[in-house]
User: Fold this.
Amino acid sequence: MNLFRSEEHVRRWTLYSSAAEDYILPISTWLNIFSGRLFKERLAPDYLLKGQEYVAEYHNSLREAGKASPYWNYPLIAELDSVRLSRYRVVGHYTRFEASVLNELKDARNRIVSGLDHHSHHRENHLVWAAPGSGKTYFVEQIADALGDALEYREINLAKFDASAFDAALSDATRTRRPTLCLVDEVDAHGGEAWPYEVLMPYLDANLAGTAHVVFVIAGSSGFSLEGMKQRIRSRPKGADVLSRIPASNQFTIAPLGFGDRVLVALSQLHTAGAAIGHDIQAVEKLGLYYVAVTDRLASARQLQEFAAAAVERVPRGDDRVKYDHLFVPGDPENKRFWVDVSTVARDLVNSYVTLEA
Assistant:
């Protein structure tokens, strides 16, 4: 954060952006804003669980100061003219903005696909930690979709199964002779019971007998990090045995969605939703992207996917643009409320579009 002696001093700063004009505030005001729990509680063990609550408080403190959203969200969208989605594609329709996250997930994808391409008679097990809503399920689904008929795909959400149903689902996944990708989601569910890892462990050895060809992706969200989740798994009956069957190279994290990711996911989901109903979406109004970027309830990939599908259905046939108004049902007061909040900052985003290149 940069501190300045006066507004004139701010405007002489070489990195000053005119988009920040509405966010010149006294230091005392910024001190009050940055003393909120979003910043103070970063090391708290329950920080991720309460993250959305803290972000909401942060935006409320900005509104109390007469500001609708952080100005640094504005320049990226204002200066964005076109996006080549393939540049940010990890697999299928799954995209990430940050280069480091993009490349780490491409490496994880390659390791998973390699286990499906070659029947090695070795364990092909993977462990992934991700904050809720980060898109871990979608990531695995897109790997399966990209491989198409070359494999079988099984998705087992442990939170929805009891011991016998879990055992039956795992048995079904390992019984087929075709290459099989099996996602065991919410593997940290049923924390007070002993059976989950006792049931899972023997199936992680399925490839060793030579009859099965299955790649397991075991996913969870507990523990606030990959290491934290592993500690919780170790504390459970047979948990250490489960972890011993997952090579360290096959353990990875899916980072939460950042600002750039939310913009990318919105663009990708709008394009995908349009294609699904035969509607070619080629442009999105920048004000709509700004709304997506600063709206707390659209912080997860799952929420963005549902939101995009509904928006595309409101686009008239023959129009290849998604406008800001298409994001809302007619008469939705949220439409006007947001515009009143940001009109002093984001007026130039109206009737200005980002074009999409698949």
